[in-house]
């Protein structure tokens, strides 16, 4: 096989949006389904279950968006501060920064002479980029946009939360709990497998871990609903 025909498909460029999407959809399904199951277990009518589920959808989507935006923004602020400090150090002590980059490459297995050559050439081309990538671990590949993460989380949460509400609307009132539980577990298994596939991981493992925690959440809310079973 020629070197030109050889290609590799990597998943690192998907990390930012994939994490937000999987987290949002998973949380939307689990939290809304658990809310629906808990309220249905308390003996509430279909209308009360739907109202509570819809309120959970809206509140959860907004919470996910706000949480992701604040979290990713804080990470971005920390990265910007590191970049600013590195820029100042490169301006004030370029020789020390060259030595530092050389040591990094030596620790990764290069001999001292080759490490010095690599560090010198990379700094001559893009000193800040080399230090950001190899000293700080910051690169454009893994950098997430705060607004993008917030929108993806909100939309995927809402998309996931719609599923248990549709089931609640369609199944007989006496079967809301079982219908939502079965549908949710199936959707979580599919979501876990999809997320694992998109990230290049094992399908079975991805499906199992998501399904387990979803089942645990619904069991917990069903027990609480039975204990405090009061018609809303």
**What's the number of helices?**
7
Profile the largest sheet. Answer: none
Secondary-structure element pattern, one letter each: HHHHHHH
Structural class: mainly alpha
Total number of domains: 1
Strand content: under 5%
Q: What Rg do the Cα atoms give?
A: 25 Å
As a percent range, the share of helical residues equals over 70%
Span from first to last CA?
A: 68 Å
Overall shape: elongated
Protein architecture, described:
By secondary structure, the chain is mainly alpha-helical. The chain has one domain. It has helices at about 15-40, 45-90, 95-105, 110-135, 145-170, 175-200, 205-225. The longest helix has about 45 residues, at about 45-90. Mean pLDDT is about 80; it is low at about 1-15.
């Amino acid at each position: 096989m020629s070197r030109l025909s050889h290609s590799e498909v990597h998943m690192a460029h998907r990390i930012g949006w994939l994490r937000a999407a999987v987290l949002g959809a998973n949380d939307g399904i689990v939290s809304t389904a658990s809310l629906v199951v808990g309220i249905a277990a308390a003996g509430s009518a279909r209308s009360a279950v739907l109202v509570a589920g819809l309120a959970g959808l809206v509140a959860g989507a907004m919470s996910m968006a706000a949480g992701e935006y604040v979290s990713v923004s804080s990470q971005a602020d920390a990265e910007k501060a590191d970049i600013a400090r590195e820029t100042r150090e490169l301006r004030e002590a370029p020789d020390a920064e060259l030595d530092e980059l050389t040591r990094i490459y030596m620790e990764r297995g290069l001999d001292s002479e080759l490490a010095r050559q690599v560090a010198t050439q990379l700094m001559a081309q893009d000193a800040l980029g080399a230090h950001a990538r190899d000293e700080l671990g910051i690169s454009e590949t893994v950098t997430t946009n705060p607004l993008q993460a917030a929108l993806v989380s909100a939309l995927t949460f809402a998309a996931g939360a719609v599923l248990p509400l549709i089931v609640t609307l369609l199944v007989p009132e006496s079967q809301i709990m079982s219908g939502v539980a079965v549908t949710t577990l199936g959707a979580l298994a599919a979501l876990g497998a999809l997320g694992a596939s998109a990230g290049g991981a094992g399908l079975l493992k991805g499906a199992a871990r998501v399904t387990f925690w979803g089942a645990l959440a619904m069991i917990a809310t069903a027990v609480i609903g039975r204990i405090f079973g009061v018609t809303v």
